Amino acid sequence: MTRRSARARRDRRARLRAGPALRASGRLLARVSGRLRRVAGQAVSASVTTTDPAARPLPPRRPAAPGSARHRFGTSPGLPVLAIAALMVLIVAMLGVEQVTGMSLLPDRLSAGLRPPPKKFPVLPASHPTSLAIEKIDVRAPVHDVGIAPDGTIAVPDAARAQEAGWYDQGPTPGQYGPAVIVGHVDTTSGPAVFHKLRELRSGDEIEVTRTDQRVAVFEVNSVEKFDKGRLPVDEVYGDFSRPSLRLITCGGQWVGGETGYADNVVVFASLVKARSGG
């Protein structure tokens, strides 16, 4: 037997041994990709907007010819798995860059739930707020409870108490999980009110809320936003219970008069970063 024929026989035996392993790997990837496609299909169908019941139904879709998808995409069952794996590697890499550089590379909606909280935070038991201090804009004001106004909105302090802030007593107290809401006037007919300079706050500024238990909850400003009063994003303002947070709300924008007053609301978004004893 020649060396060439012996080598050919060894190669043939190696291919025969590898065949079952390759076929098993192919079946495993096919099952994984099938599950991923089913999950993706459920996610898409769950997000489709309900159509008008009076609208005529769409004509039935023609079934695809056998083998057409295989002709377009090839026979490799691992392509969806590789694509998703590559996307996850990219997201993890971008999160790593954010941690090192502090630069935000991912859209907030995409990375919701992926980024860790900006800082470790305490969680405090329920205790009503009594006062508010914001050194950056020279605010030191008493805080009293407010409820719901007759029109269903959060009530605001009476005009006679325009230099005080009002804590919405149907929500969390400052330091509990969820957004504690404190409202105040921006001005009155006689001059500036307690939250006149609220729009001047910037990310990183601190807000201190003293409570009846003599604890001081210290919040750090995340952002200051302005929203049309008729299109206030309720979930964004009131719906985040992932950590203790604070919302300071006042009026802003253009004066339109009537029952509306100012056209917009100025909302400060802040997160609890620490707590200390008062006194």
From TrEMBL:
Pfam families hit by this protein: Sortase
Region named Disordered: 43-72
Gene3D superfamilies to which the protein is assigned, alphabetical: Sortase
Transmembrane segments: 78-97
NAD is among the record's keywords: no
Keywords recorded for this protein, A-Z: Hydrolase, Membrane, Transmembrane, Transmembrane helix
Protein name per its UniProtKB record: Sortase family protein
